[in-house]
Design goal:
Elements: H1 10-30, H2 38-59, H3 70-85, H4 87-90, H5 94-118, H6 123-144, H7 158-174, H8 179-200
Helix pairs in contact: 1-2, 1-3, 1-5, 2-3, 2-6, 5-6, 5-7, 5-8, 6-7, 7-8
Length: about 220
């Protein structure tokens, strides 16, 4: 690992974990497909907050940051409990949470990509680790709830926004821009793409089966 590279502040990592756990608990509390008890909602919230970072460190074969400090689990538990207990209050703040969600997506993406770069990964794998960090908690949440993985369905551009942000980050770092500045740019671009996607209803085109291939006429069938 290159120690000279930008080191992620602990507060930034904890902020991302806390917001992720809060949103995970809110999602679980509102989900109508299962009857979850209070402990179940809290556990899903914690996993949503910690999942992206754990996945990142497993991919990097790095010590799992979640288990290197007491603060990660404490912040995730507190945020999940807050989301569970105050679900009705937070449900009235959907506009604010849209902004927070977009910022958190960018923050997770930047943290994952910068840590991957610090561990010596090339540009494309580093960007991929950033995307996995950004969406890993949501995927784990949906898998635990045996629900369709929301990020793989037609919907808001969460994954695409993270790809845009991490791509910019690795381009900037490979051209000599300071990693801290590149990380801020990653958060900004991810945020902008995510918010614009919601405001303008941008969607990735839905996959459709090709029912019939076009016929190519044979040369002999052409008129003389």
């Amino acid at each position: 690992m290159d120690d000279a590279l930008f080191e992620i502040p602990l507060w930034a990592d904890l902020l991302a974990v806390g917001v992720g756990a809060l949103q995970g608990a809110l999602f679980a509390a509102r989900f109508t497909g299962h009857h979850l008890d209070l402990l179940g909602v809290a556990v899903i919230g914690v996993c949503a907050g910690l999942g992206g970072g754990i996945l990142r460190d497993l991919v990097l074969s790095a010590p799992i940051a979640t288990f290197q400090s007491n603060w990660y689990i404490l912040v995730a538990v507190a945020a999940a409990l807050l989301g569970m207990l105050l679900e009705r209050v937070f449900s009235k703040l959907n506009g604010a949470f849209t902004i927070i969600d977009a910022l958190n997506l960018g923050l997770f993406a930047a943290i994952g990509a910068t840590k991957a770069i610090a561990f010596g990964l090339p540009a494309i794998p580093a960007a991929t680790v950033g995307v996995l960090t950004a969406i890993g908690g949501s995927i784990l949440r949906d898998l635990m709830m045996t629900a369709p993985v929301q990020l793989l369905r037609v919907g808001p551009l969460n994954t695409a926004a993270a790809i845009a942000g991490t791509t910019l980050l690795v381009i900037l770092t490979t051209t000599g821009v300071a990693t801290a500045i590149a990380a801020i740019a990653c958060v900004a671009v991810t945020f902008i793409v995510r918010v614009l996607a919601l405001a303008l209803n941008w969607r990735v085109p839905e996959q459709r089966r090709i029912e019939r291939l076009p016929r190519i006429p044979h040369r002999g069938a052409q008129a003389d």
